């Protein structure tokens, strides 16, 4: 059986080639999973690559994961366009827009319905703030007001750790537990 064989859907259906359509869906889902920013702000694909000891970027700054994800996304849009009889442009634009919004919508839905423990807690960065004062050249004092929302029905205990996101600065934050 050839992969490009047209489906037997007759009439005025939208799908012209089921194989291409299912290939587009599979590649689109893989792209979404690789870019899924949960449970941390890093994409899930970056976590998988790190666990497998695959470097995420070269010394030149090329991001392997981003390039692979972009290629898979373009391939999914290509297969989607080839699988449709009509409404090509509309569905491609919808798929493109959904790829930007769907991961955050899925995270919100997961946290408010199925998540338990610390995974049901959402950090609300917009209503949080920190103020820092430099005591001397190596010491930094800070006061933070952090907002969290617990979507589960049970209490959750967790600890916070501030880390130095910018490695080349001379200011280092220490662990703070509350």
Number of helices: 4
| Average predicted confidence as pLDDT | 77
Tell me about the biggest sheet? Answer: 2 strands, antiparallel
Radius of gyration: 22 Å
Q: List the uncertain runs.
A: 168-178
Distance between the termini: 62 Å
Mass-distribution shape: elongated
Main structural class: alpha+beta
Order of strands, widest sheet: 1-2
How many strand segments?
2
Keywords: Membrane, Transmembrane, Transmembrane helix
Transmembrane segments: 20-38, 61-80, 87-106
Summarize the structure.
This protein is an alpha+beta fold and 178 residues long.
Task: Describe the fold and architecture.
- This protein has 178 residues and is α+β, with helices and mostly antiparallel strands.
- It folds into two domains: 18-113, no CATH class; 117-178, no CATH class.
- The protein contains four helices and two strands.
- The protein has helices spanning 18-34, 44-51, 64-83, 88-113, and strands at residues 121-134, 140-150.
- Strand 1 and strand 2 (140-150) form a beta hairpin.
- The chain crosses the membrane at residues 20-38, 61-80, 87-106.
Topology:
Blueprint: H1 18-34, H2 44-51, H3 64-83, H4 88-113, E1 121-134, E2 140-150
Antiparallel strand pairs: 1-2
Helix pairs in contact: 1-3, 3-4
Keywords: Membrane, Transmembrane, Transmembrane helix
Transmembrane segments: 20-38, 61-80, 87-106
